[in-house]
Write a structure and sequence with these properties.
This protein is of the alpha+beta class and 87 residues long. The chain has 3 helices and 3 strands; from the N terminus they run ββαβαα.
């Protein structure tokens, strides 16, 4: 599967490499990246180990502040749904 915010590789020994690719945001987590990470993990059958890396100078800046600000505009149900995806 093709991802927009990350790159997934699995070698013949079932060692996975997940590379975060949101350079413009220092690889900060937003809902798109979180969903793609979850999907990528579901696709790695027989995974023995996972190497998590980040493209560019920053591995991961944490949560994307712009995305978090947008979340505050949601009602409680919407915020809980997003929080459950992150958990």
């Amino acid at each position: 599967m093709k991802f927009g915010s990350l790159e997934l590789n699995l070698d013949v020994k079932n060692i996975g490499r997940l590379n975060l690719m949101r350079l413009h945001a220092h690889n900060a987590l937003n809902m798109e990246l979180i969903r793609e990470m979850r999907q990528a993990l579901r696709e790695m059958d027989g995974l023995r180990a996972l190497v998590l890396t980040g493209e560019g100078k920053t591995f991961c800046a944490g949560g994307d502040l712009k995305w978090m600000e947008e979340m505050t505009k949601q009602d409680v149900t919407g915020r809980m749904k997003d929080a459950e995806e992150l958990a």
